[in-house]
Design brief:
This protein is an all-alpha fold. Among the domains are: 180 residues, no CATH class; 239 residues, no CATH class; 116 residues, no CATH class; 128 residues, no CATH class. Helices cover 60% and strands 1% of the residues. The chain is built from 47 helices and two strands. The chain starts with 10 loop residues before the first helix and ends with a helix. This is RPAP1/MINIYO-like TPR repeats domain-containing protein.
Length: 983
């Protein structure tokens, strides 16, 4: 780059260089700063910008403005430099040039209009960046005259006739975006500072404030745009886009540019109304206060929304649905239609328009509700219709409740479907792909930067605004009291969190706070009881959590989720390997370390951020599908957290905190599982999209917090119900022979796989899917089980889960070896008390050589002796699989292993006479009947003498003519036949 400072390239080459510089600047603030260090390079770009007015270099000017905009956005200091050295004024000088009329503008030709529009849009965006940092607000008075043409509704017919509708509306849209940014700089309308002085001043930190005397006329211009919706020409345009009325005039013309303007206007109006409502009321603090009066321009905005058919209003007295006051379909209905059936830009513009409309009407309703109507005539004198006044008095949201509920149903289903389809797009780990290098970066489906994700994120933002409105706007209609609304809202919030990314941390935190409320958690008591009754096979609770318990859960869960998912990771966290849940992608993938991306979130400036960037390295977004299991799936081992021996008090406090988080998490997860059962069948449910393996893994990890979670009566009951519930899921999966990557929500709908495919049975791949070193977790669990659990049944059956035949062979082997080393086989529960059906532990017959040898090793070492006497599942499993393999495996390939195992058992029997009874049980063993584990020691009365003879022959064959072993077989044969006769 230093060499470019002295280059004198051609126009074409200069344009290429600028494109490269823009891409570099967008990569990260560090790269942007490298460009800023080349002072002469920036000066040269500004000089070239002012050199010529020829049309053939307008594209060069556009790229120059884009580069300066990216540099200004990357760091506040860069913005200050551009303002103080005059660069900003030089670059935006086109904004001061007035265009007298549309006729004058279109005479220059389509191409010139397109280039001038693009240049003006980029200049407005540069100005908006400066406004967001609190600078250049005072420029408004000088620039406003040249913006009047674009802020007023145009002659649409003339624009369409000259095919420049998009060019004009793009400028209008960006101009209203600038006004929205300016509206954020308004002082509160009723603040003492504003009431004392109506002049613009400083808002602290040398940031400029906008004046209400400038803002109110802009609202009047916006109201004109709202009225333009009923323009006959626009009405025909809308109908043509719905296919109701085809008109050649609109052939090939997109409606999206016009919707973008409406969206920008509505969001600007909502921001203005927001600055009128006192801040403490906006944050629901001191909400018993009222505002002194309602500014008339706000009521005018509400009337325009009512009169121009933006909503379908019911009768305020009986709430019966009626058409919009303008007749025909409401604008909301049209927008929902275009969101469903339009192409991408139309869909995106429609949902943005809906979002702006909801924000506007909710803020206006809230302001009217807070107004002291006794101090001002109501309805206002310019309200001609008594019904219009009644709608304003009751509230636009309440009187359009039927339509709002239809929108809620539509977008709840849509975001849940989008959530399912977007789950696997992130293949670069939590860091995500680098910004500024194009869309998708090779990811199937487009990746995080795809249009599908962009649309889903806008759907999510709108949906949460709609949900919040339903739960905050007072209504008299019993529709909002239905449980289904709460079910849908929580389900939607869970889905929304899966779609949003690093730029949406504020919205994610707000969404989490919404569904982690004490009233919702308290209602989980009812949902859980109903769910357990509906299931029939789960343990009934004789208790429920109190309101105080739910308040504690609420605080604990909010704190946990914020710390776990929304707090940036420190560089030291990379070294901490104790948290197995951090491994959410396969080991072969590589994630980038420190990557940044732009953000337009102005509120970040208020929080002291020095630049409008979000760090992509060291963060955990977008969230994985199992994120809400983190209270029970993540732990912090104090030994790895830098504590010294003197920090005993800190460690004890940490253990107590972990226990509180675990208890809260268990109840919260069971509540989510419970309410999901009551959602309509056609509603996708995020909780059922969480892989079953993560749920089972979470139940194991929570035990690492200590036995305290099982000592508490309520948490123990919740834990047991979750075990039983997931055991049922295992049974369903086993019956369908599901593939390894199966998830719960489609388990019931897949065809059964061939019986002989063992790989189809092993669908719980803990080592492959959770962590390569999963055996360490199992060893820790077994160690704790042997030392502090004293053979707790729930703890024991969670460990026995790893011996289930649906678990991958490496994990089964690791679990058995850990139990063998700890000598705790006898502490395990009997088979009938284990997780899932007994059949899953017994079938198919074990054929893994390492596992069979491990069974024999435990047998001959004496590790199974007490297990045999106590009826533990460990002895029955070894007995079942060894007997089945030795006496029922006929392939020639298995003969060597079968003979090897048999000889080991016979030698052991010859040296340890107390194992003779166990060996006889091996010979007489037959598979227990379903639900009746007959003879926990392995003897069943259904075996015949001929079968015993055949088994003895197998053992003799395995002896390979070894006389001592043959003698053992003869002795066993005599004893076994005698025992069989005595039965």
């Amino acid at each position: 780059m230093p060499k470019l400072q002295w280059a004198d390239p051609s126009v074409a080459l200069e344009e290429c260089i600028l494109s490269i510089l823009v891409a570099i600047a967008r990569h990260s603030p560090i790269c942007a700063q490298a460009i800023m260090k080349c002072d002469r390079l920036v000066e040269l770009i500004v000089q070239r910008f002012t050199m010529s007015e020829k049309i053939d270099i307008l594209s060069l000017k556009i790229k120059s403005v884009v580069l300066l905009k990216v540099l200004a956005r990357s760091d506040r200091q860069n913005c200050i430099v551009f303002v103080k050295n005059g660069t900003f004024q030089t670059i935006i000088w086109h904004l001061y040039h007035c265009t007298s009329s549309i006729d004058q503008w279109v005479k220059s030709g389509k191409e010139k209009c397109k280039l001038s529009s693009t240049l003006m849009v980029e200049q407005l965006r540069l100005w908006k960046v400066c406004i967001q940092y609190g600078y250049c607000v005072s420029y408004f008075s000088d620039i406003f005259p040249s913006l009047c043409l674009w802020l007023n509704p145009p002659n649409f017919e003339k624009l369409i006739e000259n095919n420049v509708l998009r060019e004009f509306t793009t400028i209008s849209m960006e101009a209203y975006h600038v006004l929205e940014a300016l509206a954020r700089r308004l002082p509160n309308f009723f603040s003492e500072k504003y009431l004392d002085s109506r002049e613009p001043g400083l808002a602290g930190n040398e940031s400029e404030a906008w004046s209400w005397s400038c803002a109110v006329p802009m609202v009047d211009l916006a109201i004109k745009w709202l009225g333009s919706k009923n323009d006959p020409f626009i009405s025909k345009f809308f109908l043509s886009r719905k296919g109701i009325k085809n008109d050649f005039v609109f052939e090939g013309i997109s409606l999206a540019p016009l919707l973008w303007v409406y969206s920008a206007i509505l969001k600007m109006l909502s921001r203005v109304v927001e600055r009128i409502i006192p801040q403490d009321i906006m944050t629901q603090i001191g909400s018993d206060q009222i505002v002194p009066w309602i500014p008339e321009f706000i009521l005018q905005v509400g009337l325009e929304i009512i009169k121009n058919g933006f909503l379908s209003f019911a009768d305020a007295s009986d709430m019966n649905p009626k058409t919009s006051l303008s007749g025909g379909n409401s604008f909301v209905e049209d927008l929902c239609f275009w969101r469903e059936h339009g192409e991408f830009e139309m869909s995106l513009a429609s949902v943005c328009c809906l979002h702006g409309l909801i924000l506007s009407i909710v803020n206006i309703d809230r302001l009217i509700l807070l107004a002291n109507t006794e101090s001002q005539a109501y309805p206002p004198k310019y309200v001609n219709s008594s019904r219009e006044g009644e709608i304003l008095r009751v509230g636009m949201f309440k009187t359009s409740l039927m339509e709002q509920r239809s929108m809620l149903d539509l977008f709840t289903k849509k975001i849940a479907l989008e959530c399912d389809s977007l789950q696997l797009i992130e293949t670069f780990g939590r860091g995500g792909p680098a910004p500024g290098v194009g869309i998708g970066w090779g990811v199937s489906g487009g990746g995080y930067w795809s249009l599908a994700v962009l649309l889903a994120q806008n759907d999510s933002a709108f949906l949460m605004s709609l949900v919040e409105a339903f739960h905050t706007i007072p209504t008299l209609n019993e529709l909002t009291a239905q449980e289904s609304l709460t079910f849908q809202s929580i389900n939607s919030a869970l889905a929304v969190c899966l779609v949003l990314g690093p730029r949406d941390i504020g919205l994610i935190e707000k969404t989490m706070e919404f569904f982690i409320q004490a009233p919702i958690l308290y209602n989980f008591n009812l949902y859980i009881q109903r769910f357990i009754q509906l299931n029939g096979k789960l343990k009934q609770f004789g208790w429920k959590y109190s309101e105080d318990d739910c308040l504690i859960f609420c605080r604990t869960l909010r704190s946990h989720y914020k710390d776990r998912w929304l707090t940036p990771k420190g560089s030291t966290s990379v070294k901490n390997k104790s948290n197995l849940s951090d491994r959410t992608f396969k080991s072969g993938r590589v994630s980038l370390d420190t990557i940044y991306e732009e953000s337009d979130e102005t509120n970040r400036m208020a929080q002291g951020c020095i630049c409008l960037t979000v760090q992509w390295g060291y963060q955990r977004l977008p969230l994985p599908g199992h994120w809400f299991f983190s209270p029970i799936s993540t732990i912090c081992d104090s030994k790895h957290a830098g504590h010294q021996k003197s920090d005993a008090q800190s460690i004890m406090q940490e253990s107590s905190d972990l226990l509180d988080v675990a208890k809260s998490g268990l109840f919260f997860i069971l509540g989510i599982e419970a309410f999901s059962a009551f959602l309509p069948d056609d509603f996708p449910k995020p909780v059922l999209s969480v892989p079953l393996i993560w749920k089972l893994h979470s139940l194991s990890v929570v035990l690492l917090t200590g036995i305290g979670v099982l000592d508490d009566e309520k948490s123990r009951d919740v834990y047991e119900v979750l075990q039983d519930l997931y055991g049922q899921r295992i049974n369903e999966a086993m019956s369908c022979r599901l593939p390894a990557d199966i998830m719960e929500n489609n388990a019931k709908h897949l065809l059964s796989q061939p019986e002989n495919k063992k790989s189809n049975i092993e669908f719980l791949m803990f080592q492959s899917e959770i962590h390569d070193s999963y055996s360490i977790l199992i060893e820790t669990l077994v160690e704790q089980f042997s030392s502090v659990s004293y053979g707790d049944v729930l703890y024991g059956r969670q460990i026995v889960l790893y011996l289930h035949q649906c678990v991958e062979s490496q994990t089964r082997l690791a679990a058995w070896n850990a139990l063998n080393s700890a000598r705790v086989f006898e502490l395990l529960p009997p088979l009938e008390k284990c997780l899932a059906d007994a059949e899953g532990y017994l079938q198919p017959i074990e054929d893994n050589e390492a596992i069979l040898e491990a069974y024999v090793k435990s047998w001959v070492s004496g590790a199974l002796d007490r297990s045999a006497s106590r009826g533990s599942v460990a002895y029955l499993l070894s007995l079942h699989h060894l007997s089945s393999y030795i006496f029922h495996s006929y392939p020639v390939d298995n003969l060597l292993l079968r003979n090897k195992l048999s000889r080991s058992l016979l030698r052991d029997c010859s040296h340890k006479h107390h194992h003779k009874e166990m060996m006889m049980n091996l010979i007489l063993y037959t598979k227990p009947s379903t639900h009746l584990i007959a003879g926990q020691k392995g003897v069943d009365t259904s075996i015949g003498r001929s079968d015993v003879e055949k088994r003895l022959e197998v053992l003799k064959e395995a002896c390979e003519k070894n006389s001592s072993l043959l003698t053992v077989v003869e002795e066993l044969g005599s004893s076994t036949k005698g025992k069989l006769s005595a039965m």
